[in-house]
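Researcher: We plan to redesign the surface later, but first we want a full-length starting point. Tokens attached.
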């Protein structure tokens, strides 16, 4: 089997199974362990998969820049936001994470929403104010231009003093085994605190984020109590999350 054909086969297996165990691939592909390791490394360097201990998982397709992400999965994010908005209740203290899907969520809230909203995203805070929210708490810190949110020790300390009813958590990548992961380390550190500060944690994830992995973990997948996603995501893609006890909102 030629290298191009072999690597295409690896990607086909990964797309179908969602995770590959490196030790099993030599028998499946009838090549040496060295060849498998080299193929996985080359595919990872090309951005086609994510190497993890013992194998590989799909790499997140999310664009690195905020401007690019604004153009990605626009309809999917609206559908996710609509599902998540159904989990918000008037009068609650709600943490709203940063990101383009969180902005879409704000658009799905009623005009002049009654409740307290806490966010470390200047963009989300401004959108909430424009929506007519009267009680918006903007958490400070150092602005990270990648995710367009405040990060750092000051941000983490501020959230440690918050107790919320619900957290609407932006999701870069979500995998049942690898958990909630992000491209940006400091963003992942803030999200690690967010999942601890609310009774309910609603992950906001369009279909392209499910079953993928990015570099930095915030928490295991079961740190979510709910997963808001698109209505036409197949049951097979959601069953691993249901098995973890996560309620699905579509």
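Model: Full-length starting sequence:
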């Amino acid at each position: 089997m030629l290298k191009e054909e072999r690597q295409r086969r690896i990607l086909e297996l990964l797309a179908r199974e969602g995770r590959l165990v490196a030790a099993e691939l030599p028998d499946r592909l009838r090549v040496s362990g060295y060849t498998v390791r080299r193929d996985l490394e080359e595919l990872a360097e090309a951005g086609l998969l994510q190497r993890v201990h013992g194998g590989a998982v799909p790499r997140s397709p999310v664009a690195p820049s905020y401007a690019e992400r604004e153009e990605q999965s626009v309809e999917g994010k609206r559908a996710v936001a609509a599902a998540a908005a159904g989990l918000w209740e008037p009068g609650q203290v709600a943490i709203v994470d940063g990101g383009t899907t969180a902005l879409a969520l704000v658009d799905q809230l009623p005009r002049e929403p009654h409740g307290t909203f806490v966010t470390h995203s200047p963009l989300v805070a401004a959108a909430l104010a424009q929506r007519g929210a009267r009680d918006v708490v903007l958490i400070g810190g150092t602005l990270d231009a990648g995710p367009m949110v405040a990060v750092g020790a000051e941000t983490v300390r501020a959230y440690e003093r918050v107790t919320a009813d619900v957290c609407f958590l932006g999701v870069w990548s979500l995998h049942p085994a690898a958990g909630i992961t992000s491209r940006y380390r400091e963003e992942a550190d803030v999200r690690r605190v967010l999942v601890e500060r609310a009774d309910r944690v609603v992950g906001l994830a369009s279909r392209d984020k499910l079953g993928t992995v990015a570099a930095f973990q915030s928490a295991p997948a079961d740190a979510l109590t709910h997963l808001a996603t698109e209505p036409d995501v197949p049951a097979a893609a959601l069953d691993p999350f249901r098995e973890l006890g996560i309620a699905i909102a579509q």
